[in-house]
């Protein structure tokens, strides 16, 4: 039954990373409840699981966004099972996503302009401990990656899969293959263009020295592989932490959306198209102020 569901996801054109995420979420549910995919499950079982994720023993509770993602994986699985007559009752019928008092405030974090500038300084100055790593090569690559994530709003898997042929520097645009194999085109700003050109020029020099770079169709490569993997990019980004802010690749996509809303005077539809969001409700989340914005507003109250 489970393998049939995975085949269904593949037939729908779900990305490899999405299928892995669904698989891990479902295995977590089945393992935590000690059940099999075809066992009878009630809404009470699901609510118990939610309670255990919110109030675990000896470990930190999961983020609301993580729990909601897992619930979404369950909805998809049980909806498929009911539709294909694998099961008779859907335990997810009455299960709603969890909400925080300040809706999504903790799940969407972005960089201020000052933090982004500080990050560029850290990338330039941070010593690299890995053996055999060319310091200049790593700096140039990491800088180009940060700029592409921030100024084009790429997801980490989109960046990993980005090919040289996806860049059209003459027309200043990037072809991006996103979720569900949906293709979108993002214009390249002059700021980003300069960074891309600088990296490609350096990459061409490296191609003369390294065979795996010369043979690689991808924009970014690793020390030994023609493709910089999703995990490799995540590890690279996480190595550059700012004071009081732990970086993730998706944080730069959040930054892109937040900065673009400001640049377009909150034109949600433009930002939705640039970010490749299927639902405009996803984009509208970025209209909400961060906790620090709210704190600054409170501090600005008259003092007597």
Description:
There is one protein chain. By secondary structure, the chain is mainly alpha-helical. It has two domains: 82 residues, DNA polymerase, domain 1 (Orthogonal Bundle); 178 residues, Intergrase catalytic core (hpI Integrase, Chain A). It has 14 helices and three strands. It has a three-stranded antiparallel sheet with strand order 1-2-3. The longest helix has 20 residues. The radius of gyration is 22 Å and the shape is globular.
What number is the mean pLDDT? 86
CATH architectural group of the largest domain: Orthogonal Bundle
Order of helices and strands: HHHHHHHEEEHHHHHHH
What is the CATH T-level topology of the largest domain?
hpI Integrase, Chain A
- Unreliable segments of 5+ consecutive residues: 101-106
Count structural domains. 2
- Rg over alpha carbons: 22 Å
Widest sheet: strand order? 1-2-3
Helix content: 40-55%
The main sheet comes to: 3 strands, antiparallel
CATH superfamily of the largest domain: Intergrase catalytic core
Overall geometry comes to: globular
Q: What are the SSEs and their pairings?
A:
Layout: H1 2-11, H2 16-33, H3 43-54, H4 64-83, H5 113-125, H6 135-152, H7 156-160, E1 167-168, E2 173-177, E3 183-187, H8 190-207, H9 211-214, H10 230-238, H11 249-263, H12 268-275, H13 280-284, H14 291-299
Helix pairs in contact: 2-4, 6-8, 6-11, 11-12
């Amino acid at each position: 039954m489970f393998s049939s569901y995975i085949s269904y996801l593949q037939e729908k054109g779900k990305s490899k990373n999405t299928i892995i995420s669904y698989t891990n979420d479902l295995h977590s549910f089945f393992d935590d409840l000690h059940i099999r995919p075809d066992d009878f499950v009630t809404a009470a079982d699901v609510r118990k699981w939610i309670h255990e994720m919110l109030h675990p023993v000896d470990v930190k509770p999961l983020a609301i966004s993580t729990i909601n993602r897992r619930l979404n994986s369950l909805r998809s699985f049980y909806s498929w099972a009911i539709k294909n007559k694998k099961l008779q009752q859907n335990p997810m019928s009455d299960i709603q996503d969890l909400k925080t008092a300040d809706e999504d405030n903790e799940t969407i974090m972005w960089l201020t302009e000052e933090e982004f500038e500080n990050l560029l300084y850290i990338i330039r100055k941070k010593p690299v401990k890995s053996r055999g790593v060319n310091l200049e090569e790593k700096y140039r690559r990491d800088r180009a990656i940060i700029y592409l994530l921030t100024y084009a709003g790429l997801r980490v898997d989109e960046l990993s899969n980005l090919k040289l042929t996806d860049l059209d520097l003459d027309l200043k645009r990037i072809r991006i293959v996103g979720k569900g194999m949906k293709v979108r085109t993002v214009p390249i700003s002059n700021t980003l263009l300069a960074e891309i050109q600088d990296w490609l020029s350096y990459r061409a020099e490296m191609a003369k020295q390294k065979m795996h770079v010369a043979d690689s169709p991808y924009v970014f490569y690793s020390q030994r592989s023609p493709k910089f993997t999703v995990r490799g990019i995540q590890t690279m980004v996480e190595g550059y932490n700012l004071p009081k802010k732990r970086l993730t690749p998706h944080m730069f996509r959040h930054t892109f959306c937040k900065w673009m809303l400001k640049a377009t005077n909150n034109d949600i539809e433009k930002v939705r198209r640039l970010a490749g969001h299927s639902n405009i409700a996803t984009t509208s989340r970025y209209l909400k102020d961060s906790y620090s914005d709210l704190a600054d507003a409170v501090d600005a109250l008259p003092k007597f």
